[in-house]
Write a structure and sequence with these properties.
By secondary structure, the chain is α/β, with parallel strands linked by helices. The protein is built from eleven helices and nine strands. Helix 2 crosses helix 9, helix 2 runs antiparallel to helix 10 and helix 4 crosses helix 11. It holds the Pfam family TctC.
């Protein structure tokens, strides 16, 4: 009898838990949702987040407020979401740094693969190899030759350890087998300001941050890292065209929720993301920034999880070879 009563009690608890989860999903969302961006306001990832949050807010019927929690290459913001209540009211929009931080940081306050639920991929932003406008080399082949001949004096700017520009810079040095002096900044804005001012020589950063400067002629563009030339920058060749075989780097972005968030809630968020990525305003603004929204097949929990696992494995040897770890 005691065993029977215990089994009945366990069944009742499970039923209540299931009903509770279903009830949450049926009424979700009932209040404002916070979307944490683990980088400073005004940067490329922040731009992507605000466009998507605005459109998702319309679909969900509740406002999504973007909160910038910068620091430690995006790991502070990710850690904040990992520790948040798993109720769907705190989510994370992070870029490729979600994968690279697993190797880049010796200690993390969360388990990259197991501390989150997955919502879906948002976009894959191409990178650009750019320089101060008066830099000597005229094309990518010339740039590589110049860098190798002057490796002790050429400086590479980035927005800080773990930033997209840092990762792309490491990939570039790995591709040309030349280590350069890196100059880290506290954000994309200061890095671009010094590139514009000629205080640093080159940078590898997202089109969301460089397109307008390239179009305005205030910096020199050597290549885009996409498989094909971009409509928004038709005169800029691909890195492969410029002689860097297989040099293709995209800064993909995904949305995550804390571990334990009900599956129905993450599915609702995923469906809302798919709606947002077909919003003509989002499509048009992304195009202006040199990128495209992820298709429905990628804006899913399964696709994001698979992407994260693959990218952790891809970047691990690059980071280990560079030896640029963070505490």
């Amino acid at each position: 009898m005691k065993i029977l009563n215990a089994l009945l009690a366990m069944t009742a608890v499970a039923a209540v838990s299931l009903m509770s989860g279903s009830a949450i999903a049926q009424t979700y969302p009932e209040r404002t949702i916070t979307m944490v961006v683990p980088f400073a306001a005004g940067g490329p990832t922040d731009t992507v987040a605000r466009l998507v949050a605005e459109s998702m807010s319309k679909d969900l019927g509740q406002q999504i407020v973007v909160e910038n929690v910068g620091g430690a290459g995006g790991t502070l913001g990710a850690g904040r979401v990992a520790q948040a209540d798993p109720d769907g009211y705190t989510v994370l929009l992070h870029h490729i740094g979600m994968a690279t931080s697993a190797t880049l940081y010796r200690k993390l306050a969360y388990d990259t693969l197991n501390s989150f639920e997955y919502v879906g991929l948002v976009t894959d932003v191409p990178m650009t190899i750019v320089a101060r406008k008066d830099f000597e080399p005229s094309d990518l082949r010339g740039l590589v030759e110049y860098i190798k001949a002057n490796k002790d004096s050429v400086t590479v700017a980035n927005a800080g350890i773990g930033a997209a520009s840092h990762l792309c810079g490491m990939m570039l040095m790995s591709a040309i087998q030349t280590q350069l002096t890196t100059v880290p900044y506290k954000g994309t804005g200061p890095a671009m300001t010094d590139l514009l001012g000629g205080q640093v020589d080159i940078m590898c950063d997202q089109t969301t941050n460089t397109t307008k400067q390239i179009q305005g002629g205030t910096i020199k563009a050597y290549a885009v890292t996409s498989p094909a030339r971009l409509k928004v920058l038709p005169d800029v060749p691909t890195a492969v065209e410029g002689g860097l075989a297989d040099f293709q780097v995209g800064i993909w972005h995904g949305i995550y929720a804390p571990k334990g968030t009900p599956a129905d809630v993450t599915e609702r968020l995923s469906k809302s993301l798919q709606v947002a990525l077909k919003d003509q305003n989002v499509v048009a603004r992304f195009a202006e920034l040199g990128t495209e929204p992820s298709p429905d097949a990628d804006a899913t929990p399964a696709a994001l999880k698979a992407k994260l696992e693959t990218e952790i494995a891809r970047w691990k040897p690059v980071i280990e070879a560079a030896g640029q770890y963070a505490d």
